[in-house]
Specification:
heterotrimer, A mainly alpha (242), B mainly alpha (297), C alpha/beta (681), A: 242 residues, mainly alpha, Arp2/3 complex 21 kDa subunit ARPC3, 2 domains, globular, B: 297 residues, two-stranded antiparallel ribbon
């Protein structure tokens, strides 16, 4: 089954939708925030924006009527990511979610990567409690999976251990840490100032570092067997094409 | 989780209610609105979660609230009423203190509302609501929710089995622990993927992927739901109208300015209060009804 | 009306020359209840999957399958989904969604039914299957039996005209299995739905079926009513006959060749009636049939004196290998059993001398130090055969003989039992939650060194908890647990599981880490201080012991259930345990693999390994166990040597015993009963 052309078209349609959102809807929301809502409604506006960014993925995925096997793969990987946290109960902050999301992106493409990430962010909060942090986590995990998939397709990211570990460490520190800290400033601090943001990065640095180290370690030990296993299922059962 | 009257309503009613109170809590900074929201959120959380909610509110939320209220003036120096100067020469203003309190109040309210949301909006309600617009994604959600407890059991089984061949994740240095943990995860992955193939077969076997799939739910939108929904919509309408007329308005910087209460304003306050207290009211009414029925039998 | 007509169906998996199915011709009529049996890997599942083309595996197919008069492959997906219901083997894998009600509706949603229709159908199903009380529960709170019932109900909700079930009860405990099969039978009786079922539990399934189809190596070898198909199998001397219900086996063993047309008993009730008629007849005087029987079975009957029928009838190892071995009767099987053991036996004296078993108070594991316990049976083969003829009487002596032979070889004093018991529980109490109920109540028992100890009892009585207490995974809140005189929970995993204790988990898949069986066996030495050479030697010994040679290059998950069990057993044996704990080792295994496992365990046991086994499988415990203990309500109610134990039970005992206990309460296995019948002649 060659689905390559289809994948390309999907990407463009998603890009268009995303572009429309970024260029029109998001600025409109910001303007609404500034003028209609008297500004300083950061929490609300930022949540709206984060939610927007996820809409194109949802729409494109729904429209192409995915097959049972695709659903299964995404659900299994997301569930592994969530349950994986249970396997590491003894090591706090040492979580495999980002590593699994990256592997999903590399093996099954950016879309699957995003959905695995977003789904694991969402579902894990069914167990830990939903809150204003849910959309942020969904977005961060999702976007890392998406980037991994896109970079792999472009050939910039390899399946080698080193390549994955470098990407994993950087993306955890920069993408996840970067966005989540903005999110927590939006949530906790009423005023978005440079100082508050810096303070948040400084206080979150150690957590983010441990998280990044964990991701690197997971990718180091887990990437090869995981990719082997996913490939094996792909071959044995013709699961899904990347 | 206790059975509460409000959670027995249709998911649409539940969801609309929480969407409204959450958005309002994030947007309205007017002291009266904030007080109404915080108080009713607390009342609802105690009704829904009982003693656990009280403990949570006191132990976790109160310190957070205080901390946030203190931190804000340290970072924000806007405002005209300067109270004193910090050591680094920055002024602490009345406005930023008040704003800090208001913002932390809004945040606390959001958190408490979410704790109520978590008690009422169970996963199947959410899946039902989004099953209509996003059938595939909501099915994924349902599957993940099915898999996670199953995988957790399997993680336990694997870690026990591995422990019984001398690979104990709870002992040894961190590196060894991490390696054993990763081994468990790796075993779990193989197991999950191999078993998932059969699940995919079960889905195909029961016709998943045929066109025109419908979405079934055990929820029925009955007369009670209709009444509650109408009442809610009415109250939300009044609150929004009030917001449009600026009854909820407050300005903190450069100096605090609150719109004075008008009779219409008071009506809006009342509407907001009634909206926020809706679950509590329903609960109390039902309990009274039950008591009166029980006493007659 | 004909539902299926299969002509000349042959099928081979990709990249394989061997046909998984060859030349199958079948016609299945509407409303029939068809049971299909055959040993693992005979093509049962492949055949079932071809009956629902959407599940058919890829590969080369020839021949035709017609469904309701039209080629099955042309049946559109909607009809396939609704009309052909398929229930998978593992109840957990069949369930897709997280709530019971949603699962019931899943298929109907796919078919695009409206809210009202689904509501009605779901309600109907919930009532028919008695699901009301757990209708709104999350799926993960259900028991295994409930899950499989849910699978069945959610398939039945689509009102199929055929119901296909692929070993639906293999993962269930005996009580839920019987309930499930009764429900299937009810569907067949009350709704007229055609049922096609593969099953290992023929004891329970056959009385319900109208027709039995036996597959061997992808071909149909018998297709008739269960009674006649059974008689036919017996006539062929086919190893599959060993899996038939005990009454049928006893009947065949006693009356063989009597009157082919006379119906063989299928259930315990029929068996009893037959036995009574027969025994009264015997008492009354001559029975012509007996004489005829003697003639007809000729030398095989003569062989029964030394070598019981039990071995062949419980699936002889040679037959289990899957060859076309259609040996006339048990006698010929015996030699085939000797070679592996004999081969080891030759190498034994040398290795026995330089044994490292200096430890006095512990029985040597023997397992993997180059001298396999497998050598033990070889020692007693000349004495008494692998199994004594009259087990009830000779059991204990034979066992002792076997053991002492082994000990002599090792220059060990026979007085070993005087040492500390292998496992001892003293006034043990355990609960999972501080405020929860006690899972283990005042439990005291001892397992002597070298004993083969079986814990039997219903679900949720605390059997598995007891195993966890033994392996130190859990700690009692009162009382003492001692393994070889030491507290397992206080010992580190390194100490406890090196050369002392090994646990074979219920699901062997939880042990597999690597991508081939061989790599996986080597994996156990990760971090162990051994030379490459030592590791290789040990692994090779384990491979020989568990007969894994042909499977080494395979992925552990591509093995069948029985093979996985063996690979896992080999893996834990590499730890050279002196005590082996097993949790439900026979779950999901067919008769052949069970027999094989039983044989392995006896080999190990004879080699001095203490075995503690938790099981639901009464027949297996009666057959292979030494001591059996009844577990109930968190404690051991009674414990005795296996045969007297089951002989003393009225209800919780083997089918053969239930059938014959009014005459010979101590006849526990089918072989016992046959022997008594012969004696009373």
């Amino acid at each position: 089954m060659r689905r390559q052309p289809l994948t390309d078209r999907r990407l463009t349609r998603r890009t268009l939708l995303a572009a429309a959102l970024i260029l029109v809807v998001i600025p409109a929301t910001m303007l609404l925030g500034i003028f209609a809502l008297n500004d300083r409604k950061y929490l609300f506006v930022s949540l709206l924006i984060v939610l927007y960014t996820m809409i194109p993925f949802a729409l494109v995925f729904e429209r192409r009527k995915p097959q049972a096997r695709e659903l299964i793969v995404i659900a299994v990987l997301a569930a592994i990511a969530v349950a994986g946290r249970a396997a590491f109960f003894m090591l706090p902050e040492f979580k495999p979610v980002v590593a699994i999301v990256i592997i999903a992106g590399v093996c099954f493409g950016g879309e699957a990567g995003f959905l695995v990430g977003a789904a694991s962010g969402f579902v894990s909060n069914f167990f830990f409690g939903q809150g204003p942090w849910t959309p942020w986590q969904m977005f961060c995990f999702g976007i890392i999976g998406f980037i991994a998939g896109v970079l792999y397709k472009k050939g910039w990211l390899k399946r080698s251990r080193i390549s994955l570990c470098v990407f994993g460490g950087l993306s955890t520190l920069v993408v996840y840490g970067g966005i989540i800290n903005i999110g927590s400033v939006m949530m906790f601090d009423p005023v978005l100032t440079k100082e508050a943001l810096l303070a948040s990065y400084a206080s979150g640095f150690w957590f983010d570092s441990v998280h990044a180290v964990a991701t690197v370690l997971f990718l180091f030990f887990l990437s090869r067997p995981m990719i082997e296993k996913l490939d094996r299922t792909k071959v044995k059962y013709g699961l899904i094409e990347p | 989780m206790r059975r509460t009257a409000f959670s027995s309503y249709h998911p649409i009613v539940n969801f609309t209610y929480f969407a409204a109170v959450l958005v309002f809590a994030m947007l309205f900074m007017h002291p009266v609105f904030q007080a109404v929201a915080l108080v009713s959120a607390l009342v609802n959380s105690v009704l829904l979660n009982g003693r656990r909610a009280v403990r949570f509110n006191l132990r976790f939320l109160l310190p957070l609230f205080v901390l946030m209220a203190v931190v804000n003036p340290a970072f924000s120096h806007a405002g005209v009423t300067i109270l004193f100067y910090l050591r680094d020469g920055n002024p602490v203003t009345l406005e930023s203190i008040l704003y800090g309190i208001a913002a932390s109040c809004a945040y606390a309210t959001v958190i408490v509302w979410f704790s109520c949301y978590n008690a009422v909006m169970t996963s199947d309600k959410f899946i039902y609501l989004f099953g209509r617009i996003m059938p595939a994604l909501s099915l994924i959600l349902s599957m993940v929710l099915r898999f996670v407890p199953r995988y957790r059991q399997q993680v336990k089984a694997i870690s026990d089995a591995q422990k019984c061949v001398g690979r104990d994740v709870t002992q040894g240095n961190p590196l060894r622990r991490a390696r054993n943990g990763i081994r468990i995860l790796s075993v779990m992955t193989t197991w999950a993927l191999e078993n998932a193939i059969e699940t995919a077969d079960a889905m195909k076997s029961r016709g998943y992927g045929l066109p025109n799939r419908t979405s079934f739910s055990i929820y029925r939108f009955d007369g009670r739901d209709r009444n509650a929904f109408a009442a809610m919509a009415g109250l939300i309408g009044v609150v929004l109208l009030g917001a449009a007329f600026g009854e909820n308005g407050i300005r903190y910087f450069p100096s605090v300015h609150v719109k004075h209460a008008s009779p219409f304003g008071v009506a809006v306050y009342a509407a907001y209060f009634m909206l926020c207290m809706l679950p509590a009211a329903i609960q109390i009414v039902e309990e009274l009804k039950w008591k009166s029925i029980a006493s007659k039998n | 009306m004909e539902i299926y007509r299969i002509k000349e169906l042959s099928f081979a998996f990709p990249l394989q020359d061997k046909h998984a199915l060859s030349g199958i011709d079948l016609a299945i009529g509407a409303g029939e209840f068809v049971a299909i049996c055959g040993k693992s890997g005979c093509g049962k599942s492949t055949l079932l999957r071809h009956l629902k083309p959407i599940l058919a595996p890829h590969g080369r197919l020839s021949g035709t399958i017609h469904y309701k008069g039209r080629p099955a492959a042309e049946t559109d997906r909607r009809t396939q989904a609704a009309d052909i219901g398929f229930v998978l083997q593992n109840p957990d894998n069949g369930i897709v969604t997280d709530k019971v009600w949603h699962e019931l509706a899943f298929g109907l949603e796919s078919l695009g039914y409206g809210q009202q229709t689904i509501r009605l159908r779901v309600a109907e199903m919930a009532s028919f299957f008695g699901i009301q009380s757990w209708f709104r529960k999350p799926v993960n709170e259900l028991s295994g039996g409930q899950k499989q019932l849910l699978n069945l109900a959610s398939v039945m909700a689509m009102h199929p005209s055929v119901l296909i079930l692929d070993e639906p009860t293999s993962q269930l405990d005996p009580i839920s299995a019987v309930d499930f099969l009764e429900t299937v039978s009810k569907i067949n009786r009350e709704l007229g739905t055609t049922v096609i079922l593969t099953e290992h539990r023929l004891e329970e399934a056959l009385p319900l079926a109208d027709r039995l189809i036996v597959l061997d190596d992808g071909a149909v070898i018998a297709d008739d009513s269960p009674r006649r198909a059974g008689a036919w199998l017996h006539g062929l001397g086919h190893p599959m006959f060993a899996s038939m219900p005990s009454p049928m086996r006893i009947y065949a063993g006693v009356e063989a060749g009597a009157d082919p047309a006379a119906p063989s008993p299928l259930t315990v009730k029929e068996g009893r009636q037959w036995l009574d008629r027969r025994m009264n007849g015997v008492a009354g005087g001559a029975n012509a049939a007996i004489g005829r029987k003697r003639e007809l079975i000729g030398e095989s009957a003569a062989a029964q004196g030394k070598k019981p029928e039990s071995m062949p009838s419980e699936a002889p190892p040679a037959a289990a290998e899957g060859s076309q071995s259609v040996s006339a009767d048990g006698a010929e099987i015996l030699p085939s059993e000797v070679p592996p053991s004999a081969a080891v036996a030759e190498s034994r004296p040398a290795s026995a001398n330089d044994l490292a078993f200096a430890d006095d108070n512990r029985m040597p594991a023997g397992a993997m130090s180059g001298n396999l316990p497998g050598s033990a049976p070889a020692a007693d083969v000349p004495q008494s055969g692998a199994y004594p003829a009259n087990p009830a009487i000779n059991e204990a002596t034979a066992r002792e003989a076997r053991k002492s032979a082994w000990r002599l070889l090792l220059d060990k004093p026979v007085a070993a039992p005087a040492a500390a018991p292998a496992v001892s529980f003293k006034d043990v109490w355990f609960k999972y939650d501080k405020n929860g109920p006690d899972a283990i109540k005042d439990l005291s028992f001892e397992v002597k060194k070298g004993e083969f100890y079986c814990l039997v009892g219903g679900n949720g009585t605390g059997k598995s908890t007891t195993l966890s207490l033994m392996s130190g995974l859990l700690r009692p809140y009162r009382g003492k647990v001692r393994i070889d005189g030491r507290n397992p929970a206080a010992l580190g995993a390194d100490e406890l599981f090196a050369n002392l204790l090994a646990v074979l988990p219920q699901n062997p898949q939880t042990l597999f880490v690597k991508k081939t069986v061989e790599l996986d066996l080597h994996e156990i030495f990760d971090g162990a201080r051994l030379t490459k050479e030592q590791k290789r030697e040990k692994v090779e010994a384990a491979i020989r012991f568990a007969e894994l040679e042909p499977l080494l290059g395979m992925h552990p998950y591509d093995l069948s259930g029985g093979e996985q069990q063996r690979a896992a057993l080999a893996k834990v044996l590499l730890l050279e345990p002196s005590i082996l704990l097993l949790d439900e080792p026979t779950k999901g295994l067919d008769g052949f693999f069970k027999a094989k496992l039983g044989e392995f365990l006896q080999k190990l046991n004879a080699g001095g390994v203490t075995i503690v086994m938790v099981s639901h499988d009464i027949e297996f415990c009666a057959r292979y166990g030494e001591t059996c203990a009844m577990f109930f309500d968190g404690g051991v109610i009674a414990s005795k040597a296996a045969k007297p134990f089951f002989a003393g039970n009225g209800f919780y005992t083997t089918a053969a015993n239930r059938m014959a206990r009014h005459r010979w309460p101590d006849a526990v296995t089918a072989e016992d009963v046959i022997a008594r019948c012969d004696d009373s002649r």
